[in-house]
Amino acid sequence: MLGLRSVFFALLLPGSVTVLIPYYILSARNIRVAHWGLLQILGLAAIALGGPILIRCIVEFARSGRGTLAPVDPPKTLVIQGLYRYVRNPMYVGVTSVLLGETALFQSSALLYYTAVWFVIVNLFVIFYEEPTLRAKFGESYEQYRRSVRRWIPRRPA
Asked: What is the C-alpha end-to-end distance of the chain, expressed in Å?
């Protein structure tokens, strides 16, 4: 059942953010890939990097945390292994990579604006909801994790 919930919330949340909303933005402006050049190749590379990061994090939430990415069905245990050893929010990093890749692929200023607004909203959500919730739920173990792993910029674990 956890697997089905994980797939459902993955399609609903990051699926909407990275596929559905960009589709509507691009179709409303009738934007297509104009030509194939270096920027489009870099865009595809960013998408190819971000997608697997997102999937790996969703799997890690289910396996190690026994929960999903949705705030209504969060992990039961603190997930600090896998990509979470390097950055506290790898799932959002993966989504950001996909969105920036789509922006480059379609050379869309509208997608760039959407990505910037999305990132500001996510950052506020992380700071004012996720982090206080994790602090309340996991206490000192989360505080120690927070002190040793950066929020957005990955680094090698100590």
From this structure: 36
